[in-house]
Design brief:
By secondary structure, the chain is of the alpha+beta class. Helix content is 55%, strand content 17%. Helix 1 runs antiparallel to helix 4. It is rod-shaped, with a radius of gyration of 52 Å. The chain binds adenosine-5'-triphosphate and magnesium ion.
Length: 477
């Protein structure tokens, strides 16, 4: 089951790898997005705070607020952003500052800002820098520098420094939650891929096992069908195939058994009679009689073998049909004449009901004759003495229908579907006396099917049977 090349593992690995890739890409995208997002937000905050400071400095310089209030404002900003604040004059000397509580205590006042970008700030630009700001800080800082404007004039600069480390901590937390949920989702997807892959592969694996069993001759097991999708349909068809294989196999077995049985009984009786003649157990005056019986048996065997040959040829499709336009009424007439003696012997009457004198159909004349002989034979065999046999043909739309009916024993409804099976005989003990092998109707059905037509049976037990088959009509031009 867990072979690497099995459908299950392939499906599972595919599903899982796809989810993993999606998670990875999503994780990377989200992380980069957050990194720049947090950086940008921090810059904006610093710039906003710088604006506020510049207002306070203005107020301080004009005497509205004192140093205490100014530093109080610095502290608020520091608590919020962890910021070191420098305020310089136009030459870069720091005259007011605040040291971030996150860093070591340093006295910044009277120090000088010497970086190259100072000039840009003094010209009125706001700049952002990342790094240790020369050697001023022990760790990397995000620095925002902006001009200090009082009454629309640039009077100096404001620098705000915020430790990047602090930002990294926020980022790390974000990364962690992103990756944690990615791992969780991946695990969930592993579970789901397992369930889905199993659902897909299970019926296929089952079919695989069962088909192997069928190949060894065990037809008992079937696939359990749960879904209605293609796999479900395959399973349904697979079961149907197993059903028909099983049926075919049992038919083959009983066919072989029947054939051997049917061949053995005439052979045994022939052997007995010939032996009797040879060792004189049968008196000379009776020899002719018994040899005649033996001859009858050979004829019976001959007939059986011919029928079997026909049946197998039809079944294997080797049977060539000589389709022509023939008059089915004429065929019926000819068969009827050949059976006249049998019919008269048992005092039966025949009713012939042809819609038209000539009824042209498409078919193989010899095979159609075989059909009529078989059906008429059966009708005679099973009719009651003195009963009526009806032969009827009629045209309906594109078809000609032929009916052969008797007033005999009729056939039980439950037996009807089996009649067409080779060797099937109702009440074997009774029919045995009347001879026959039970191949007649199966050959009839096969011939009619080879004509792409149908045969039906209407029968009522005790009242008689009527076999009706269709043929393709040929309209006279
Ligand atoms: N007209 C009928 N009335 C009653 N039963 C019939 C009729 N035709 C067929 N059957 C039943 O169907 C069985 C199968 O018929 P089928 O023609 O295949 O075999 P058969 O007549 O016994 O042998 P065969 O035709 O090979 O000589 C018969 O054994 C008989 O029991
Ligand atoms: Mg028959």
């Amino acid at each position: 089951m867990f072979q690497f090349r099995s459908l299950f593992t392939r499906l599972m690995v595919t599903f899982f790898v796809i989810t993993l890739c999606i998670m990875l890409i999503l994780g990377i995208l989200l992380s980069t997005f957050f990194e720049s997002f947090i950086m940008e937000t921090r810059k904006e905050e610093l710039i906003r705070e710088g604006g506020a400071i510049s207002q306070y400095i203005g107020l301080y310089l004009t005497g509205f607020i004192d140093t205490r209030i100014l530093h109080y404002q610095y502290q608020i900003i520091d608590r919020f952003l962890g910021t070191t604040i420098w305020v310089t004059d136009e030459r870069g000397n720091i005259w007011s500052s605040h040291n971030s509580t996150l860093l070591e205590e340093v006295d910044w006042e009277n120090q000088k800002v010497t970086i190259d970008e100072f000039v840009q700030v003094l010209e009125g630009n706001t700049i952002t820098l990342e790094g240790r700001f020369g050697e001023s800080f022990p760790e990397p800082m995000l620095t925002v520098g902006m001009p200090l404007k009082i009454n629309e004039r640039i009077r100096g600069t404001i620098f705000l420094h915020s430790p990047i480390q602090g930002l990294n901590r926020t980022l790390r937390n974000t990364y962690q939650s992103i990756w944690r949920s990615a791992i969780l989702t991946s695990l969930l997807s592993l579970l789901l891929s397992f369930i889905i892959s199993r659902r897909f592969s299970k019926p296929l694996t089952e079919m695989n096992i069962i088909s192997r069993e069928i190949a060894t001759g065990n037809f008992k097991r079937r696939v359990k069908v749960k879904t209605k999708d293609e796999v479900g349909q395959l399973a349904v068809n697979f079961n149907a195939m197993a059903d028909s294989l099983e049926k075919l196999e049992s038919m083959r077995r009983s066919f072989v058994a029947n054939v051997s049985h049917e061949l053995r009984s005439p052979l045994t009786s022939m052997k007995g009679y010939i032996q009797g003649v040879l060792d004189h157990t049968i008196p000379v005056e009776d020899q002719d009689k018994y040899l005649k019986i033996a001859l009858d048996e050979t004829e019976r065997m001959n007939r059986l073998i011919n029928e079997l040959l026909d049946l197998s040829q039809i079944e294997t499709g080797q049977f060539s049909m000589d389709i022509r336009v023939v008059d089915i009424n004429e065929i019926i007439r000819r068969v009827l004449i050949s059976k006249e003696d049998c019919i008269n012997d048992r005092g039966m009457e025949v009713e012939v009901d042809f819609e038209k004198d000539v009824c042209m159909v498409e078919g193989d004349p010899d095979r159609l004759q075989q059909v009529i002989i078989n059906l008429l034979d059966n009708a005679i065999k099973h009719n009651r003495d003195g009963g009526l046999i009806t032969l009827k043909t009629w045209l309906h739309k594109d078809h000609v229908y032929v009916k052969v009916a008797d007033q005999g024993s009729g056939i039980n409804k439950e037996e009807i579907p089996h009649l067409w099976e080779p060797f099937y005989q109702i009440d074997k003990s009774r029919t045995r006396k009347k001879e026959g092998t039970g191949l007649g109707l199966s050959i009839v059905k096969k011939i009619i099917e080879a004509h792409e037509q149908n045969i039906w049976l209407n029968s009522e037990e005790g009242k008689g049977s009527a076999f009706i088959f269709s043929l393709k009509a040929v309209k006279k031009t």
